[in-house]
Request: fold
Amino acid sequence: MTTTPSPTECQDRRRRSLAELTGRKLDALLVFHLPNVRYLTGFTGSNAVLLLHPDRAILFTDPRYRLQATQESDCALRVAKGPLLVAAVKASRRSKIRRLGFESARVDWQAIENVKEHLSLGASLEPVCGLVEDLRRVKSPAEIALIRHSVLTTSEAFRRAIRHARPGIPERDLAAELEYQMRLLGADRPAFETLVTSGPRTALPHARSSSCPLSANRLLLVDMGASQNGYASDMTRMAFFGRPGPRVKRLHRAVLEAQLAALAAVRPGVSAAAVDRRARRVLRDHGLDRAFHHSTGHGLGLEIHEAPRLGKGEKTRLAAGMVCTVEPGAYLEGLGGVRIEDTVLVTQTGCEVLTPTPKELLLL
Reply:
C-alpha cells in the first residue's frame, strides 16, 4: 500500500490552497502545522515550514531531513541550519511578497514577533485560521483507503488482545497489549493513548488506564485507535466479565440505540448538529440525556481530532468523503459508563461504517 500521496495529489492540494489565498487577498502562506505540511507536500519529518507561493512551493527543513525531504516531496527544498521560520520569511522577502499569511492557531506568537524584522519594507504578516484544515475535511480515495487499513488494524488488534483480558490484570496491562498488537499489525503508533477502564471507572468518559485490576461482574471499556501510514482510526467497545444485570443491559441497549440512530442520520447535506441531536433524543427517551457529557463524534484523518465536530450548535454540513467517529455514551456514577464508537465514511447516499468489530456487549 502506498504510504505517501503522489506528487500529483500534493500539487492539486496546493493549487486548491492557493485558490483560497487569492480569495483572502494574500500573496503567500507560511504553513507550520506538521499535518498540514504533510498534506501539502508529502513530507513526514518532525521539523518543517512550507512557504506556499503561486510561483513555487518551498519546503524548509534542517540537515537531518535533507535526503528524506527529497525522497518524499516534489517541492523546492531549502535546508536551514538556523530557525526555519526566519529562513522562510527571508525567502518571502526575496520573492517580494507583500501580504504573507501564517497559521495563526498553530504558532507561538512570540516567534511571529521575532521574525517581523526580516520582512521586506511594507510587507505584513496576516493571521489565517483553518485554511488547510478546511480542505482536509473531505478525504481523497487514497486517504480513505489508508483510513480503512488503519481501522482494520485497530479491529484486529482488539480481537487478538481481548483474549488476554481476565479479572485481576491491571487496566494498563491490557492497554499495553492492545498497543502491542496494533504495532505487530503495522501501526506506526497508537493514534492516542489507549484507554482501558473497568467497573465504576467506566463512568469517567476519558479516564486514563490505571493500575486498577479488572474485576469480575464489572463493565470493561476499551477506547483505542491506530495511526498507520499517518492516518488515524478510532473505536470504542464494551465488554463484561460474567453475566450482566438488567441495569447494565438497559444502559448498553440505550447507547447502542442512540448510536444506530445517529448513524442513520449521517448523509451529505445534514448538519453536524443534527447527527448529535439524533443521539441525544434517543438517550433522553431513556432518561439518560444528562448522562451524556461529550459530543457525538469528530472528524479524523492525519490527526485523531479534525473537523467536523458532531456536536451541539455545529453548523457544518456533512459531505461525501468526510470521515468521522460516531460515539454517543452514557455515564452513571457507581454503575459505570457505556460508549460505542465507530469510524464512519460519509458516502453519496448515506454513510458506511468502516469498523467491522461487533457492537454487542462482549461477554468474557
The chain has two domains: 7-136, 141-363. The chain has ten helices and 20 strands. The first helix runs from residue 7 to 23.
